Amino acid sequence: MIRLQDIADMAGVSRTTVSNVINGNTKRVSQETIDKITAILKEQNYVPHMGSVMLSGHGSRIIGVVVGFNQAHGMQPLQDSFVGELVGTIQNEAEVKGYYIMLIGGENIQHVVDIASRWNVEGLIILGYNDEKYRQLSRKLNKKMVLIDTYPAGEYFFQNVGVDDYSGGYQIGNYLYSCGYDKALFIAETDIDSDYSRWMGFKQAMEQDGKFCSRTRLVIVSYEKKKRLQKYSELLPRFLEVKALAFSSDYDAIEAMNFFLDQGIKIPDQISITGYDDSIYAQMVRPKLTTVHQDVSQKAHLALSRLLRMAAGEQLKEMNVKSPVHLVRRESVKEKNRPLI
Amino acid sequence: MIRLQDIADMAGVSRTTVSNVINGNTKRVSQETIDKITAILKEQNYVPHMGSVMLSGHGSRIIGVVVGFNQAHGMQPLQDSFVGELVGTIQNEAEVKGYYIMLIGGENIQHVVDIASRWNVEGLIILGYNDEKYRQLSRKLNKKMVLIDTYPAGEYFFQNVGVDDYSGGYQIGNYLYSCGYDKALFIAETDIDSDYSRWMGFKQAMEQDGKFCSRTRLVIVSYEKKKRLQKYSELLPRFLEVKALAFSSDYDAIEAMNFFLDQGIKIPDQISITGYDDSIYAQMVRPKLTTVHQDVSQKAHLALSRLLRMAAGEQLKEMNVKSPVHLVRRESVKEKNRPLI
DNA sequence: CTGAAAGCGCTTACAG
DNA sequence: CTGAAAGCGCTTACAG
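YS: structure for the whole thing
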């Protein structure tokens, strides 16, 4: 490997001078010297050894990406296309900005602390942590962090890049309502965090024209497939009556859709269904799933650029920025009162 | 941050001794000293600064994962569930073995060289490179590398972890043949690399009982969706006649299946369809896709452990190890002559 | 059994 | 405008 010293020797100058032109401390170096060194640097394809760089006062330029999800729906977190797109986009963007991405498994907090300190990362982008887990981590590790899609119990006390779940829920609710489904149900695996916001948006939309949308229209289902399906069986008569189901995830929506289809129930003729996320398979299933789309690459961009600003010492005012969201109408809802556009 | 020196001070010994116990050069250190230092290390949660470690003779313990795919089907490479599962599994396993994963975009070879040298990575796992691109890279970068799913023009001259495409093709062909579809077509976007092997396996299976499977039964379709779909339209009469189509990817299989479904053609009643890969959405579509499954996490394991062995100086005899593959029968093939199991 | 010292490849305040 | 020197946090041959 070729070192600074080697370059200096070739140029007939000192390491100091070479280092100065590399780092742009170029004010006090003659143009001639600059040109000569630059040429050699290029010709030799010199790259500094990051170990030395780290050791001599400069940052590591490593961004840790912490993937803290527990296996969602039994798959590897990175298998989820949302996570994949997010991480991939972060890595692309980091690369053009001259940063490096280190992947860190997030389950074990001590591990995260360990790796982040070892490598002196400049910041962490964290997926799949809740506020409590973040709190534990931040007690042990003093680094800049931005979380993705995390809901705190109270006010935001950390940097978050989220998504406008409330609005997404509202848009779904409003759409269903406008199609005449004013008794539609909302189905989720929990009643907290994003599920809660989505439900609240949905509820709000359903309460147009002075109507009331009671809590009984939020159906919580198990995170175990078998139990979920069983619940759908039990609830089938109610489903058939209300005629429309808004799911809080594409995954569950598609699962349910297939479950109904397999029993000979016509979707959307007998039951209209919506999802949430616009995952990659929303368009692959038939009928194509009507769902809520978010701009994942924008989210990646927001997360990284905000983290970098924090790392540069900037104090960000907003604690929680939200990526916008929009309904994408496909085929899983029967639009009774509404012409297709 | 707490340094070796600090630990040494607390223990009342020299840095050397502390370093010795950390690195297990423990033969010439008294048990008493070992215990004392170990306790302090633990209590202080000491972790070494990797910059120093790298600089003083030890390896970086960084494995670079190069994602060199061009956007497959218009998505981010990491969005592909295969890539996601692979990378995720590699990262998990690396972490338990005390290695770190750096994500590297592979499009620009110079970039890969740059990052790998800067960080003095101990090895590279490379996805989505062909033999030519590997050749270019290896000319500029002297590191241990293992590729994933790469086919060389001739003999293997690099370490590869692949999949038994030939066998997969054979299994599909044999299954279809046994169901009576002895005129089935094979559909792929290229006629090289894995597509070629799959086709050859398929062909071989179709040539049972002295039959002949001509090259005309390999249908090459465009990588542009519009053109693909147009081709399916043109070929529809032939499809209906041969009654079975084996696609070289789940993605194309599902797209085609939906295309037919949208035209009112019954799948599998009128056309049986198979995919390849067993992606996450193979089970989400209706009918569920019959396809070929490979053990992705085993592949991740093979890639990493072989790379580590190479990094440790071992000469691996096998240049190309293949992960096994098996058919998974679902619902997209009508089993005329065969009872469902 | 333990420690002083050299060295890894850089950067940066400082002197000239 | 340029360079000698100190220093970053570790490891390791070597001396005692």
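YS: worth flagging: Chain A has three domains: 4-44, 62-158, 165-293.
IM: good catch. Also The domain at 62-158 of chain A is CATH 3.40.50.2300 (Rossmann fold).
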